[in-house]
Each structure stands twice: as C-alpha cells, then as structure tokens.
Design goal:
Radius of gyration: 13 Å
Largest sheet: 3 strands, mixed
Order of helices and strands: EEHEEE
Number of helices: 1
Length: 70
Amino acid sequence: MEEQRIILPPRATSFRAVCSACQAEQPASRGYLGAIVEGALALDDERGNVVCSRGHEIELVRETPAAALR
C-alpha cells in the first residue's frame, strides 16, 4: 500500500477520514465500517502523523487549497 496523506486546510484543527489501507483490506460489503480514523493537528503545526486503530500510519499536512490562492 502506498503512503497515506491527509491534507488539512489552514484553519482546521480536527479531521475524520477513511484509512485507505483498512478499506482495501476488508470486503467491499463492509464499506467504511472500521476504516475511519479521527485526529487533530494543532494550528501551529504544519505536519504530523496519526495511526489508525489497525496500525496504519497516515501523514498529516496543512496546505492552503489551490483555489484559495487565485
């Protein structure tokens, strides 16, 4: 499985996302059940990491969306 990354907008402090590795390991009939990861990244931090309940590491990156820069 490739490295996972969650991109957070500049003012976001918490998130809820799907762990792609967990989702890939389970039958499609289960959907996202058990594949959700939640966490937080302090406003002062630009990068971080979170580990899902099954041990998959996910990189957190704070970025300004390209549309906001236009």
